[in-house]
Amino acid sequence: MQDRYAVIGNPIEHSKSPLIHAAFAKQTGENLTYAKILGNLKHFEQDAIGFFQQGGRGLNVTVPFKERAWRLADSLGSEAQSAGAVNTLVALPDGSLRGENTDGIGLVRDLTINHRCLLSGSRILLLGAGGAARGVAGQLLAQGPERLFIANRTAVKAQALVQRLSRQGNPEWGGLEDLAGQQFDLIINSTSAGLNAEVPALPDGVLAPGAWVYDLMYASEPTAFVTWGRAQHAAKCLDGLGMLVEQAAESFYLWRGVRPETAPVIAALSRAGNNPR
Ligand code: ATR
């Protein structure tokens, strides 16, 4: 029988994870199936546990269940622990569930390997302090930037995230208005503003010469933040497609012990979405 995997979220219809994992399985010769599950907001836990009781080997967990998966897991990887969120559940041989978070690794691999962006020694601004920011902040700190500033519309939430990271380092925090007069080499948007075609209100001049912008969101059209970056003449404007594929590859590796090649999958999705990078 083929090993069973799935992604669970709500909504889930537009998830690209089944396509990505099918491509990884084909490429590596791993014998598995990967489905989409529409998680029920009332009983996500039963849905997830039921999947594993019926022989499922691993789940990807997406919005809005990542925090609930964190509570559900019997043990946690260090990334998941610090993020307070789980995007990957692994069935261990003893029947317990291990929670991992591959989002931060996915972002860092996309930036540093696919795009050869040097994070060490750079000035990074992370916009937003919600679940998406929690998933990536620890990994960004681990790259040894000159500074990491976490800015949020509601400043106290950025402060809370920074307190959460205190064991890993000492990022700065503030409100968006605190960014006036500051400059960064890389601005990463983790806010959900783009869902309403908005961008966080940033002061002029916040991009240093040659700076890059990166939107964790992905869409078949350029996202609002990518469009903003282009208008500001950022040297490179990236959306989250590469991160999406890289976090999937890390999950695949955790489940199967095999690391798939991501470049052909990113290229194929990019062509299919008519959104060349
Ligand atoms: P997610 O899990 O996607 O991170 P979330 O936890 O609801 O979602 O967090 C959403 C983030 O986007 C928050 O940082 C939010 O800022 P507030 O904490 O001030 O609400 C940010 N956000 C949403 N819309 C925004 C907008 N129009 N401008 C700036 N920030 C915005």
Just give the CATH class of the largest domain.
Alpha Beta
Query: What is the CATH architecture term of the largest domain?
Result: 3-Layer(aba) Sandwich
Our count of domains comes out at 2
Number of helices: 10
Helix and strand pattern: EHEHEHEHEEHEHEHEEEHEHH
Largest sheet: 6 strands, mixed
Helix content, binned percent: 25-40%
Q: In angstroms, what separates the terminal alpha carbons? A: 39 Å
Strand order of the largest sheet: 2-1-3-5-6-4
The CATH topology of the largest domain comes to: Rossmann fold
Structural class: alpha/beta
Shape: globular
How are the SSEs placed, and which strands pair?
Layout lengths: L2 E7 L7 H12 L3 E7 L5 H10 L4 E4 L4 H7 L2 E2 L1 H6 L4 E4 L5 E4 L2 H12 L8 E5 L3 H12 L4 E6 L2 H10 L7 E4 L8 E6 L17 E9 L8 H8 L4 E3 L2 H16 L6 H10 L5
Parallel strand pairs: 1-2, 1-3, 4-6, 7-8, 7-10, 8-9, 10-11, 11-12
Antiparallel strand pairs: 3-5, 5-6
Helix pairs in contact: 1-9, 5-6, 5-9
Bound molecules: 2'-monophosphoadenosine-5'-diphosphate.
2'-monophosphoadenosine-5'-diphosphate binds next to helix 6.
